[in-house]
Specification:
This is DUF4399 domain-containing protein. Keywords: Signal. The chain contains one helix and nine strands. By secondary structure, it is mainly beta. The strands form two sheets. Strands 2, 4, 5, 6, 8 and 9 form a six-stranded mixed beta sheet that branches. It is elongated and about 40 Å long. The N terminus is likely disordered.
Amino acid sequence: MYKIIAVAALVMSAALASPNAAIAGTTPAPAGAHEYIGYPNDGQVVPANKPFKVWFGLRYMGVAPKGVKYPNTGHHHLLIDTDLPPMDQEIPSDRNHLHFGAGETETMIQLPPGKHTLQLLMGDDMHVPHNPPVYSKKITVIAR
């Protein structure tokens, strides 16, 4: 009995210690899939209170609209001034989690003055992150 408890404790501590061990959705992501923000660049100054373009980049995976279940596809979600949501649940839809369920690969957004973070997260046909999750590096922009 003690061996089972010890093994379970080791497994749990390894899962908690590894940042890539997050519980994810059930839709598989293709090997090597990579999402990135093509524009703006990290640290770039963008106009405050005026629309500017955000361009979504994706490699080794395709884009499909919400509700379309096709292998190796998903759609973009733009996270503004927030951290990644739970990877085993539907991505929230609010002012910090913008959904692009029609398959869009760019958008126009407007930010108030100050520092802001932007990050992309792919969702499957039901807005749940893939397994493993496919997301971009978080970038910072300065709205002036």
